Amino acid sequence: MxxxxxxxxxxxKIRVGLWEIQGRRxxxxxxxxxxPVRGHVDHFVPWSRYSDDTLDNxxxxxxxxxxxxxxxxxxxxxxxxxxxxxxxxxxxxxxLSDLACQATWDRQADRSLNVARAIYLRLPNDARLWLRGxxxxxxxxxxxxxxxxxxxxxxx
Length: 156
Hints:
- Strands 1-2 form a two-stranded antiparallel sheet.
- The chain has helices spanning 12-21, 63-69, 76-84, 91-103, 109-120, 141-150, and strands spanning 39-43, 58-62, 129-132, 135-137.
- The protein is α+β, with helices and mostly antiparallel strands.
- The two termini are 29 Å apart.
- α1 (12-21) runs antiparallel to α4 (91-103) and α3 packs parallel to α6.
- Helices cover 39% and strands 11% of the residues.
C-alpha cells in the first residue's frame, strides 16, 4: 500500500501503446525512445497529489525526465501539451480510446482533467513547477488558465 491506501496499478500492458501514441518520444523532453522498455509510465498529475491510475493521467517519459520530475507538478508548457489529448477530435484522444479498449484499461478523462484543474488553478504564487532536469519555474497563471479553460470536456 502506498499513499491514500491504494496500490499502484502495474502499467506494462499500456506502455507500448502510450509510447506509440507519443510518437516513440519522451512526453517531456521529446527525446526519441528507441524502444518502449526505455520509457517509464509517469503519472502526469503525480500519484502523491491524487491516486489516479486511469489512462488519461499517464504519459511515457525517459528515465531521466521521470526521475527529475518525480512527484512534482509539470510546468505550464507540459500541461498545455497534456490537455490537448482531451480534445474530442484529436488523434491522441482517439488513440487513447482505442488503447483503453484494447488493454481493458479504465479511462476517465473528465476526472483526470478536473483533478488537474483543481490543483493547477489553486497554486500559490510561490509554487515551483518542474520544467526539465533540475530546473523549476514559477507557475504561468495565464498559460495554465488558458490550457485548462480551453480544454473541452472530454467525451468518455
